[in-house]
Amino acid sequence: MCQQGAEQRDYVYLGGEFRKNARVPLPYGQHLSLAGALFGEGVYSTRTADASQIYVLRASRKPEEFGAVTAWHLDARNPSASSIAARMELRAHDIVFIQEQPITT
Fold it and tell me: Cα–Cα distance between 72 and 105 in angstroms, integer?
Protein backbone atom coordinates (compact mmCIF):
# COMPACT_ATOMS: atom_id res chain seq x y z
CA MET A 1 0.00 0.00 0.00
CA CYS A 2 1.44 3.37 -1.04
CA GLN A 3 1.11 6.59 0.82
CA GLN A 4 -0.77 9.32 -0.97
CA GLY A 5 1.45 10.91 -3.61
CA ALA A 6 4.06 8.14 -3.46
CA GLU A 7 4.96 6.21 -6.59
CA GLN A 8 4.51 2.46 -6.40
CA ARG A 9 7.71 0.48 -7.05
CA ASP A 10 8.46 -3.13 -7.85
CA TYR A 11 11.31 -4.90 -6.10
CA VAL A 12 13.55 -7.95 -6.31
CA TYR A 13 15.05 -9.49 -3.19
CA LEU A 14 18.66 -10.52 -2.60
CA GLY A 15 19.31 -13.15 0.04
CA GLY A 16 21.97 -15.52 1.25
CA GLU A 17 25.64 -14.76 0.76
CA PHE A 18 25.42 -11.20 -0.50
CA ARG A 19 27.47 -8.60 1.35
CA LYS A 20 24.10 -7.18 2.36
CA ASN A 21 20.71 -8.83 1.93
CA ALA A 22 18.45 -6.26 0.35
CA ARG A 23 15.23 -5.29 -1.35
CA VAL A 24 16.26 -3.68 -4.63
CA PRO A 25 13.85 -1.44 -6.57
CA LEU A 26 13.52 -2.26 -10.24
CA PRO A 27 14.54 0.74 -12.38
CA TYR A 28 11.70 2.71 -13.97
CA GLY A 29 11.42 1.94 -17.67
CA GLN A 30 14.54 -0.23 -17.59
CA HIS A 31 15.43 -3.79 -16.69
CA LEU A 32 17.62 -5.34 -14.04
CA SER A 33 19.53 -8.43 -15.12
CA LEU A 34 20.76 -11.18 -12.86
CA ALA A 35 24.32 -10.01 -13.58
CA GLY A 36 23.33 -6.49 -12.52
CA ALA A 37 22.01 -7.85 -9.23
CA LEU A 38 25.06 -10.04 -8.62
CA PHE A 39 27.80 -7.61 -9.58
CA GLY A 40 26.18 -4.22 -9.13
CA GLU A 41 23.29 -4.03 -6.72
CA GLY A 42 24.11 -6.77 -4.26
CA VAL A 43 27.76 -7.60 -4.83
CA TYR A 44 27.91 -11.13 -3.58
CA SER A 45 30.54 -12.14 -1.08
CA THR A 46 33.27 -14.05 -2.91
CA ARG A 47 34.68 -15.15 0.46
CA THR A 48 31.59 -16.93 1.76
CA ALA A 49 29.35 -17.51 -1.30
CA ASP A 50 29.28 -20.75 -3.25
CA ALA A 51 29.37 -19.40 -6.82
CA SER A 52 28.11 -22.76 -8.07
CA GLN A 53 24.88 -22.38 -6.11
CA ILE A 54 23.12 -19.22 -7.30
CA TYR A 55 19.34 -19.38 -7.69
CA VAL A 56 16.57 -17.17 -9.01
CA LEU A 57 13.22 -18.07 -7.46
CA ARG A 58 10.00 -16.88 -9.09
CA ALA A 59 6.57 -17.62 -7.64
CA SER A 60 3.62 -18.22 -9.91
CA ARG A 61 1.33 -15.20 -10.32
CA LYS A 62 -1.73 -17.41 -10.70
CA PRO A 63 -3.71 -17.61 -7.43
CA GLU A 64 -4.72 -21.22 -8.16
CA GLU A 65 -1.02 -22.14 -8.25
CA PHE A 66 -0.28 -20.74 -4.79
CA GLY A 67 3.04 -22.13 -3.62
CA ALA A 68 4.24 -22.98 -7.12
CA VAL A 69 7.78 -21.69 -7.62
CA THR A 70 10.11 -21.87 -10.60
CA ALA A 71 13.79 -22.01 -9.70
CA TRP A 72 16.68 -21.31 -12.08
CA HIS A 73 20.15 -22.48 -11.11
CA LEU A 74 23.35 -20.71 -12.17
CA ASP A 75 26.85 -22.09 -11.73
CA ALA A 76 28.95 -18.92 -11.90
CA ARG A 77 32.22 -20.87 -11.68
CA ASN A 78 31.86 -21.32 -15.44
CA PRO A 79 32.80 -18.00 -17.14
CA SER A 80 30.20 -18.50 -19.87
CA ALA A 81 27.52 -18.34 -17.18
CA SER A 82 28.14 -14.59 -16.96
CA SER A 83 26.66 -14.16 -20.43
CA ILE A 84 23.55 -16.04 -19.31
CA ALA A 85 23.30 -13.90 -16.17
CA ALA A 86 23.63 -10.73 -18.28
CA ARG A 87 20.63 -11.78 -20.38
CA MET A 88 18.37 -13.04 -17.59
CA GLU A 89 15.86 -10.33 -16.79
CA LEU A 90 14.65 -10.19 -13.22
CA ARG A 91 10.97 -9.53 -12.59
CA ALA A 92 9.07 -8.01 -9.71
CA HIS A 93 9.14 -10.19 -6.58
CA ASP A 94 11.96 -12.45 -7.82
CA ILE A 95 14.33 -13.69 -5.15
CA VAL A 96 18.02 -14.12 -5.92
CA PHE A 97 19.59 -16.49 -3.42
CA ILE A 98 23.22 -17.56 -3.08
CA GLN A 99 24.12 -20.57 -0.96
CA GLU A 100 27.07 -20.35 1.42
CA GLN A 101 30.21 -22.40 0.84
CA PRO A 102 30.27 -25.70 2.77
CA ILE A 103 33.34 -24.52 4.69
CA THR A 104 31.36 -21.48 5.88
CA THR A 105 28.73 -23.72 7.39
Answer: 23
Indicate if the pLDDT at residue 1 is higher than 70.
no
CATH of the domain at 23: 3.10.560.10
Note the pTM of the prediction, 2 decimals.
0.83
Domain range spanning residue 66? 11-100
Residue 93 lies in a domain: yes
Mean pLDDT of 16-45: 86
Q: Is residue 3 assigned to a domain?
A: no
Q: How many CB atoms lie within 10 A of CB 41?
A: 17
Binning pLDDT at 50, 70 and 90, where does residue 65 land?
A: confident
Q: Please give the angle made by the CA atoms of 89, 72 and 32, to the nearest 5 degrees.
A: 20
